[in-house]
Write a sequence for this structure.
């Protein structure tokens, strides 16, 4: 009888439902779209490299805990990006000025009305 009970337990073990906890999004937490997109990009890259997608989210959390105390670089990156954008705007403005000079604008030099056709 003990052997039959063991077989029954082995069979039932394969059919036992796996208990699942309901998960809710953390209250009051709204991740930026940039962060979510960067996460998706990195997740897809790592899955493409062969990492197990089932354990990857947990491993992400563990890795993030190591980076919490890293020195922040985003302020410097934001400043560099703003400086690059300002340089592009300045170059664009300079290009517009050069283009308008080529079209014949005199910037008030006074000779634009010199030959108006009123000669005798």
């Amino acid at each position: 009888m003990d052997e039959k009970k063991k077989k029954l337990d082995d069979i039932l073990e394969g059919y036992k439902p796996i208990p699942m906890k309901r998960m809710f999004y953390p209250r009051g937490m709204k991740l930026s779209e940039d962060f979510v997109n960067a996460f998706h990009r990195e997740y897809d890259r790592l899955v493409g490299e062969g990492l197990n997608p089932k354990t990857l989210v947990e491993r992400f959390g563990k890795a993030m805990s190591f980076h919490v105390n890293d020195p922040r670089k985003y302020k410097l990156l934001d400043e560099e990006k703003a400086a690059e954008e300002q340089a592009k705007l300045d170059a664009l403005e300079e290009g517009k000025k050069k283009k308008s000079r080529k079209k014949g604008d005199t910037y008030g030099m006074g000779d634009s009305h010199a030959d108006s056709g009123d000669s005798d």
Q: What stands out?
A: The mean pLDDT is 80.
